[in-house]
Amino acid sequence: MPPYEPDKELVDVIDDEGRTVGVATRKEMRARRLPHRCTYVLVFNRAGELFVHLRTDTKDVYPGHWDVDVGGVVAAGESFDVGVRREIAEELGIDGEFDVEELFPFRFADEKSSLQGVVYRMVHDGPFRLQPEEIVRGEFVPLTTIAELTRKRPFCPDGLAVLAEFRRRWPATFAELPANRRILLGSGGFRTPERIAFLVEQMRDFFGPVDRLLFIPYALRDHDRYVQAMVDRGIHAGYHLDGIHRHADPQKAIREAAALFVGGGNTFRLLDSLYRYGLLGAIRERVAQGMPYLGISAGTNVACPTIKTTNDMPIVQPPSLDALNLIGFQINPHYFDGQIMVRHEESMIEHFGETRDDRIREFHEMNDQPVLGLREGGLIRIERGRMNLEGAEARLFRRGRKSVDMRAGDSLKST
User: Fold this and answer.
1) What's the CA gap between 121 and 224, in Å, rounded?
2) Which of 70, 12, 83, 60 lies closest to 40, judged by CA?
3) Are 230 and 236 in contact (CB under 8 A)?
C-alpha cells in the first residue's frame, strides 16, 4: 500500500463556471484557498439515522471536527461520480458494489475553502472499516438530534450547509412524527395463508387489547356481506368488527371508536361515502388524538393526501380527490414492476397497456408528492415516531429523481 501523503495529491483548480483552469497539489490548494471540486455523501442506515464521524487531528481542514457526511476532494482528471465511489471505499472501507444516489449540486466558501461539489445519498447499515488516517470514530444518530449535537460538538461548516440544503429540499425527512400517531397501511393481496398470518400478527400487535374495531366497508356495495367475508377469511384477527353502516350516526361512531379499520375495494366509492357522511374531519381528528388507523388497499389510498395514485376506476365522482392526508406522500397499492403478460392459446404474450411505473411517471408530470409503490403483502407501520416498511419490498418514486427500491424493515423517514 502506498504511503498516505494527501498533501502531494493533485487536484483540479476551477473557475466560477466549474471549468478546469489548472492543476495544483492539495497542499498548494489549501495554502492559496484555490477553488476546487468536492463530493459529499449523506449516509443513512435503514432505520433512517444519519452517520456522523469525528475527523482526525491531522486533517488539513477542520481537524478534530465532527462531520455529517463522508466524501472529499475530487482528484485531478476525476469525475464527481468516480471520485465519490473512491471516497466511500476509502473512508468507509466498503467492498464490492454499492448504490449511491446523486441529489444536488453544492457551492461553499469560507476563509478556509472555496469549492463546487455534488451531494449524494446512500443507505448502508455498516459495519464500516473506517480509514484511520481520516476518521477517529463514527456513529448513527437520529436526524432530530443533529441540532443538539452541534451545540455540544464542533462540526464542519460545509457539512452543516449540505445538511441545511437537504433539509430545505426534503423537509419531511426531518419532520418528527407525533409519538401518539398510530397508522398501519397495507397494500392488499392478503390472500395466502402466510400473508393472512402475517397481517393478523401485525394487527394483534398494533391494536393490542381493544375488543372491537370500527370497520368501514364503504368501498364495496354489500356492507354486511363484506364484514362477514372478513370474519370468514380470518382478517378480523379475532377482534369484533363493528360495521359503521349499522350506526345511525356515523360521525358519533368515529368519535367513540377505540380503533378504526378501513377496508379495500373501490377507492372512489369509499371516498365518496366518506364525504357524504362527513367523516373526513372526524377521522383526522381522532387519528391526531392517537386512535389507531388500519387501512388496506382503498383504505390505504384514502389515508394519502389524495386518491390520485389509486388503481381503481372512477365508478362514482366524489366531491374532490382530496383525501384524509394522514401521511405526507402518496401510495400505489398492489404495485408491481414490469409489463403484464397474458395467455394466448399455449403461449404468453406481452400486454401493451401502461405499466405502474408509466402511470406514476405521468402522475409526477403534474404533481410533486412522492409515491411509494407498495407490493402486495406489504405494510407501512407508523408508531412511536417511526415509519417502517414491513412484510414486502416497495419502490419509492420522487419527481425528478431516480426511483429507489426498499426492503422490508427499511425506515421511510430518510427518503
Assistant:
1) 49
2) 70
3) yes
Catalytic residue, from 312, 357, 411, 414: name it. 312
C-alpha cell, 280: 373526513
Q: Of the residues 113, 273, 297, 411, which is catalytic? A: 297
- 0.85 cut: is pTM over it? no
Nine-digit cell string for 26: 492539495
Confidence of residue 210 (pLDDT cuts 50, 70, 90): very high
Task: Give catalytic status of residue 347 as yes or no.
Answer: no
Cell of 385: 415516531
pLDDT at 346: 82
Among 81, 97, 91, CA closest to 52: 91
Give the mean pLDDT of 311-333: 96
Query: Would residue 65 show up in a list of annotated catalytic residues for this protein?
Result: no
Q: Which is the catalytic residue, given 334, 357, 411, 414? A: 334
User: What is the radius of gyration, based on Cα positions, of the chain?
Assistant: 26
405 in active site: no
Domains by residue range for the chain, with CATH: 6-173 (3.90.79.10), 183-406 (3.40.50.880)
Q: pLDDT class for 96, splitting at 50, 70, 90?
A: confident
pLDDT number for residue 402: 87
Cβ partners under 8 Å of residue 29, min gap 6 = 11, 13, 36, 73
Give pLDDT, residue 174: 63
pLDDT tens figures, 251-276: 999 999 999 999 999 999 999 999 99
Pairing mode of beta strands 183-186, 293-296: parallel
pLDDT in tens, 110-122: 999 999 999 999 9
For the beta carbon of residue 362, count every other beta carbon within 10 angstroms.
11
Contacts of 266 (CB under 8 A, 6+ apart): 219, 220, 298, 312, 313, 315
